[in-house]
Amino acid sequence: MEQMTGKLCLVTGANSGIGLATATKLARMGAHVVMVCRDAARGEAARDQIRQLTGNHQVDLLQADLADLSQVRGVAEDYQARYPRLDVLIHNAGLMKKRREVSADGHELQLAVHFLAPFLLTHALRDALEAAPAARVVSVASMLHRFGKLDFDDLHAARRYSMWRQYGASKLATIVFTYELARRLENTNITANCLHPGVIGSNIESNPRWLRPFLASPETGARTPVYLASSPELEGVTGRYFIACSPRDSSPASRNPAVARQLWQVGEDLTGARWPT
Fold it and tell me: What is the pLDDT of residue 272?
């Protein structure tokens, strides 16, 4: 279980749920884990818990609210000032909002956290990823992307908001971003893949009491992100969507090249992060 020894892994949303379970598993495998958490106190408690459970004291904390693009830039600067490279970047931070909320930058919150933050953070950490022998970008998506639609006339759901519809749209954006990122990083040392973790009993959504017995644990939900982060079988594998550690087909909408180009342009326009073509 020490095949990740020496690997630097950054996990967003790492103080609870799938993120905490993922960070714990990676630490147990010997990785040097850097947690990104919005709440400093909860992050410190989670960091101390992981250190105690795993005996691995190479577990660090960076604090940032990823809904705020200035803090995304700041945490990337903090990371690069402290660490020489980045072997694995796991975009796990997530949320669901029953009512429409906007970020400090004026973006709908689910879109901000599930698409804009990963878009900007990956761009800002590209030098650190390129400094690794073989880097991996892993994004936690959802099978609910199949119920989402990227309406470029109302991406922020200002005219019509539904928690489930917007969550699905934001996770669809996660997958489209992953595929386009993989295409743009062809023939580099960086791969990009995404996943559906399962139907998990995490704290990002309010589940009815009758549903809770049917939900899997965060530890189960962490299996696929850890697999994508660590498995030797996936060396060089990129631009894929996984469920239960197996490649699957995502929705046809997620594989539309025209949609990918348009979404990428939106990402650049809203974050200011310009990627080479």
Answer: 96
Secondary structure of residue 10 in the 3-state scheme: strand
Contact 46, 15 (CB under 8 A): yes
Catalytic annotation, pick one of 79, 167, 179, 241: 167
Kind of pairing between the strands at 246-248 and 241-243? antiparallel
Instruction: Tell me what pLDDT residue 45 has.
Output: 97
Positive or negative, the Cα torsion across 185, 140, 114, 118?
A: negative
Question: How many other CB atoms are there within 10 angstroms of residue 151's CB atom?
Answer: 13
Ranges of residues in the chain with a pLDDT under 50 are 206, 210-211, 214
pLDDT at 232: 94
Q: Please compute Rg for the chain using Cα positions.
A: 17
C-alpha–C-alpha distance, residues 254 and 264, integer Å: 13
Question: For 105-176, where are the E strands, in sequence order?
Answer: 135-140
In angstroms, the CA 168 to CA 157 distance is 12
167 is catalytic: yes
What gap in Å lies between CA 46 and CA 102, rounded to an integer? 27
CB neighbours of 83 closer than 8 A, spacing ≥ 6? 8, 34, 128
How far apart (Å, rounded) are the C-alpha atoms in residues 175 and 177? 5
Q: Contact at 8 Å (CB) between 221 and 197?
A: yes
What domains does the chain contain, in order, with CATH numbers?
Answer: 8-271 (3.40.50.720)
